[in-house]
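Fold this sequence, please.
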Amino acid sequence: MTLIDGLALHDRIMVDPGYWRRGLGRAIMQLLGAEARRHGSDGGLLTATAAGRALYETLGWQARSPWTTAQIMP
């Protein structure tokens, strides 16, 4: 997670599949959210897999658009 212009940007937040369904992902996201707010964040952006999206939606996140990757070639 990094903070840019008041937004907390989340990327590659993962839990090993052997630890799924134990509340670890929820705990991680709650800690990251608390830390972001402590540093003045008033919102956030993240990318998610379909499996991750289900968790994020229970935490109040909303899907805004599909994820797209772009690359600038020299």
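Strands lie at 2-4, 7-10, 43-46. The chain has one domain: 2-58.
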